[in-house]
Amino acid sequence: MKKLAIGLLSLITIMSCKEEMKQKETIKVTYPETKKVDTVNTYFGTEVKDPYRWLEDDRSAETEAWVKAENKVTQGYLANIPYREQLKDRLSKLWNYEKIGAPFIEGDYTYFYKNDGLQNQYVIYRYKTGDDPKTAEVFLDPNTFKEDGTISLGGTSFSKNGKILAYAISEGGSDWRKILVMDVETKEIIEDTLVDIKFSGMSWYKNEGFYYSSYDKPKGSELSAKTDQHKVYYHKLGTSQSEDQLIYGGTEAEKHRYIYGNVTRDDRFLIISPRVSTSGNKLLIKDLTKPNSDFVTILDHTDSDTYIIENEDDQLFLVTNLEAPNQRLVTVNASNPTPEHWKDVIPETKNVLSASKAGGYFFAEYMVDAVSKVLQYEYSGKLVREVELPGVGSAGGFGAKKEEKELYYSFTNYVTPGSIYKYDIENGTSELYRKPEIDFNPENYESKQVFYTSKDGTKVPMIITHKKGLELNGKNPTILYGYGGFNVSLTPSFSIANAVWMEQGGIYAVPNLRGGGEYGKAWHDAGTQQKKQNVFDDFIAAAEYLITNKYTSSDYLAIRGGSNGGLLVGATMTQRPDLMKVALPAVGVLDMLRYHTFTAGAGWAYDYGTAEDSKDMFEYLKGYSPVHNVKEGVQYPATMVTTGDHDDRVVPAHSFKFAAELQEKQSGDNPVLIRIETDAGHGAGTPVSKTIEQYADIYGFTLFNMGFNVLPEKIESFKN
User: Fold this and answer.
1) N or C: where does the chain have the smaller number of CB atoms within 10 Å of the terminal CB?
2) Are strands 371-377 and 383-386 parallel, antiparallel or unpaired?
3) Cβ(626)–Cβ(641) below 8 Å
C-alpha cells in the first residue's frame, strides 16, 4: 500500500510530535456584522425574541450579501490550514476508482450505473440482455445536464414493457423535480417536461402513463414556503401536464403532507398511502380492472407504518408494524382487507424486519444489533434457508422481478468497500460479482461493536473503527457521528471519506441512538417529542465512553451529524460545550420553535412535536432548541456549520441563525464558521467535486483545531 504514503502521514506519528507543538497556530477571525431586529413571538404567554428572523428570507439582497460575507471569512480561514490541499489530493486519489452498480433488466436491455472515478454524477449504461456486458453503451449521462454537475438525476422509472423511461432531475440540489419522458430506443425526449414535482415516485400503469405526487407551487419562496397539501396525479402519455388527473388529495377536509401512489406489478391495484407525518400512514386500494371503482380502505388511521409488498390476484401481502413494533409480513384478501382479517406469513421476532421480494420468494432482512441477517421464505411463510453472507456488516438489495432466477445484493461494513454478489434464488448460492479496486487495505483496520450505558441505564450499541495497533492514550483524533431520529437505522457501511480520516490515525465511532429504527418502533418512539432528550443523553454517554476508555479525550473529539443529526450536534454542543473540541453540525434542524413553518417541516411533528401543540411541548422544545440555547460568555467548541443555499428540506435559515448566535456570544478563541455551499441542497445529488472539497475543509478544520499544524510527508507505518 505504498500509495497511502504519498503526501500525508498518520496522525499517530503526529501525536509523538504533540509536545513540540503546544503553541497552536491561531488564525484571527473577524466575523461579518449581523444586524439584529426586534421580532418577537409569543407562545402561551411567553415572549421569545428572534433577532435574526430576517435571515429566513432567502430571496433578499441582504441575506445574499450576508452569505457572501460569511463564506469569504470561512474560505479565508480555511486557506490558512497548511495541509488542506493535501487532504483534498488524498481524497481525490482514493475516490478515483471505478464504481459499478448491480445490473437490472428492463425490456430488452440490461442496465447498470457506473462512475469512472471522479465523475460528478453516475452514468447509466446498457447492453442487450444476453450480449457481452463489454458491449455496454452510455444510455443516460447526467454529467451532460450541466457542466458543473449541479443538475442531478433524481429517480428513474421504466414502463412495464421497458420501452419508455420517465426520469426526474434536480437542479442545484433542490427537492423540487422536473420529469422527462424518453423513448429508450431512440433516446429522444418524447413529451413536454413535467414541472413543479416534489417528494414523488413515478409508478407506471401498463405502458400508458404513470402516477406521481406533488404540491401546488407555493406562494413566495419556492425554497422555503410551507408545503403541506400533497396530491397524487395520473399523467397519460401524449397529453399535457395541465390535463393530468387528480387522483387523491387536495381537499381541505383531509390534508396529508405526503401521499404516494403505486401500481402493483400486474396492473391490478393502485395503492394510495396518505401520511400526515413522516411516521404512520393510512392505506387504500383501487381495483384498476373495474372502471370507476371506488377506493377501498385498508387502514383509516396513521397508527402504523404499513405497505403492500406483493399481490397474487386478490391475495395481498403487507408489511406492517401494527401490533408488531418490529414488523411482520401478513396476507389478506382484497375483498376483505382490514386488519381483523390479516394472517401472519412471517411473524414478528425480537429483531426488526425489512422485507423484499425476488423470484417468487420473500427475503426477510433482520437487524441484529444493527448487523444484517437474511432469511428466504416461500409465499406460504415456509422458511427456505438463511442466506449465507460474506461477513459481518450490512447486506441489501434482495429484490428482483418475479420471473427472474438471480438477484444481486450488496455487502459492506466500515472497513469493507461495497461489493456486489450474485445470488441464485433457487439453490441459495452466492458468488462475488464485482469487487471495487480501491487503494485501501481493510486488513490494516479493525471495527468492533461495544455496548455502553446511557444516563437512564439504557444499553446502547456503538461501532468503533480505526487502524490496527491503535494506542489507547486519549490522544487519538475521533469523530463521533450520530443521527437518532425518524426511525432511521445507522448500519455499517464503507465511506471513502471515513477511510481517509482513519488513514490519518483517526477513530470513527457510530452509536445507534434512540430515535432510530435499529430496535423497532419502541426504540424510535423512545427518542421522540418529550423523550427527545434521551437521544442527546445517548450521544453524550457515547462521548464519555470513548473518553473514559482512553480512545480519545475532549481535546481530540469532534461530533458530527447532518439534518436531524445536525440538531443532535447543536443540542449536544450547547448542553455540554466542554465535552468536545470540534462541532460539525450539517444541514441541521436548529430552530425548534419554527421548523414546522418551512417547506414540509410540519411533517416532522411525529418526532418533534411543535411549539403550538401545548405549553409543555413549547417549553420542552425551547429547552433544547440550539438557536435558543446559545449563552453569552460560554466557550463553545470550534464549530463549522455547513449547509446549502438550495436546501429546501431543512432550510439554511436554521444554520444561518445558529451561526449568528454563536458568533455573537462565543467566549474564547475557538472559531465559529459557516460554510454555505452554493447550488447545493440537503445532500442528495451533490457533485463529487463539491463533496471532496467539503470533506477536505471539514477534516482540515477539525485537525487544525485539535492542534495539528503539520502533516509530515510519509506514512512510515504503511510502507511495504
Assistant:
1) C
2) antiparallel
3) no
CA 562 – CA 644 distance, rounded (Å): 12
Contacts of 7 by beta carbon, 8 Å cutoff, 6+ apart: 86, 89, 90, 713
Q: In 3-state terms, what secondary structure has residue 504?
A: coil
Residue 160: exposed, middle, or buried by beta-carbon count in 10 A (0-12, 13-18, 19+)?
middle
Q: Is 563 tagged catalytic?
A: yes
Closest to 661 in 3D by CA, of 561, 585, 716, 558? 585
Mean pLDDT of the region 472-489: 96
Return the DSSP state at 402. Answer: T
pLDDT score for 8: 34
Distance CA 229, CA 251 (A): 8
- 682 an active-site residue? yes
Strand, coil or helix: what is 665? Answer: helix
What would the grid cell of residue 467 be? Answer: 487502524
Please tell me which residue in 279, 563, 625, 655 is annotated as part of the active site: 563
Distance CA 94, CA 56 (A): 38
Q: Take residue 206 and report the three cell numbers written for it.
A: 401498463
- Average of pLDDT values for 158-163? 97
Instruction: From 608, 556, 562, 564, select the one nearest 585 (Cα to Cα).
Output: 562
Q: Which residue has the cell 427518542?
A: 527
Task: Using alpha carbons, select from 258, 253, 200, 271 the residue that is nearest to residue 227.
Answer: 258
Helix (H, G, I), strand (E, B) or coil at 544: helix
Active-site entry in 230, 466, 524, 682? 682
Side-chain half-sphere of 327: how many Cα atoms within 13 Å? 25
Integer Cα distance of 313 and 678 in angstroms: 50
- Which CB contacts under 8 angstroms, 24+ apart, belong to 50-55? 50/594, 52/656, 52/657, 52/660, 52/661, 55/653, 55/656, 55/657, 55/660
Residue 603, number of CB atoms within 10 A of its CB: 21
- Beta-strand (E) ranges in 604-698? 638-644, 672-677
What does the DSSP assignment read for 560-628?
EEETHHHHHHHHHHHH-TTS-SEEEEES----TTTGGGSTTGGGGHHHH--TTT-HHHHHHHHHH-GGG
Exposure class string for 467-506: b at 16+ Cβ within 10 A, else e: beebeeebbbbbbbbbbbbbbbbbbbbbbbbbbbbbbbbb
Q: Which residue type occupies 581?
A: K
At 686 the pLDDT is: 82
Specify the amino acid at residue 132: D
Q: Which of 357, 465, 455, 453 is closest to 403 using CA atoms?
A: 357
Average pLDDT over residues 470-489: 96
How far does Cα 666 stand from its chain's mean position?
Answer: 30
pLDDT digits 0-9 by tens, 250-271: 877 777 889 999 999 999 999 9
List for the chain the helix, strand, coil content (%; round to 5).
Answer: 25, 30, 45
Residues linked to residue 164 through DSSP beta bridges, in sequence order? 183
Distance CA 482, CA 452 (A): 15
Instruction: Return the minimum-mean-pLDDT range out of 54-63, 265-274, 508-517.
Output: 54-63
Distances in whole angstroms, Cα of residue 698 to Cα of each of 78, 190, 718: 9, 44, 24
For residue 124, give the DSSP letter. E
d(CA 434, CA 418): 9
